[in-house]
Amino acid sequence: TRPRDFLFLYRLIREYHPDCLIANFGAGNVMTLVGWLTRVPNRVDWYRTLSTQVLADSPYSPWKNWLLLKRKQFVYRFATQIIANSVAAVEDVQHVYRIPARKCHVFYNTLADPLPEVFQSASADTQPKITCVGRLWPTKGQDTLIRAIALLKNSGLDVPVEFVGDGPLRQEYERLAQQLGVADRCTFVGKVPHDEVLARMAASTVCVVPSRSEAFGLVNIEAMAVGTPVVASRVGGIVEIVREGQDGFLVPPDDPQALANRL
Prior knowledge:
Distance between the termini: 43 Å
Number of strands: 10
Order of helices and strands: HEHEHHEHEHEHEHEHEHEHEH
Radius of gyration: 21 Å
Shape: elongated
């Protein structure tokens, strides 16, 4: 995203003369503009995060968020295709960034079958356990799950939950668990290798995805791939991935009681 990155990509394109460039996340601006300037015929931007997620988790002021949005609107004009990971994401990019429908396509996330490796390392523990995987940011909604665990404990169902992932809200969520009397039921394991994430999912009774906004939610298909049902928020692209009553259940976001009932 710096001038040297523009120059680096410019030199690569002049040397190799590619027919197509594909960019993800922060590389999109550099790739799209340099690709347009050097007349690469196909310039593909992936769109994987809803604008509501970006705004809710952004550390910037409202005016800077507005400037970033306008910059992205400008850059997307020079992309030949926008590939989104859900219908919800396609609708978002069309509405927020004014992208013509003819340039937008859906390509759902996939992953290699993890079962052979996971089952070799999965725990044999048969005790009920809940796992929640995701960075500890506002849109991921782990605080809703903590409140649901407190409701379950008050009703006599004392089930442990492990939060896999890290982020700026970790200490706040640990304090919330302490205040609600479920600190002994909530374990924050931080970041772990991906193989271990899948093994923890496979050893769980259920995986919870309590997001407030989500374009897709890769953890949904990771959980299903290792045979663990999902209880997730009925938001964004999640409703396109988790089939109600088959892969798990969908609940309203920010509703600890509904989540507790389903769990």
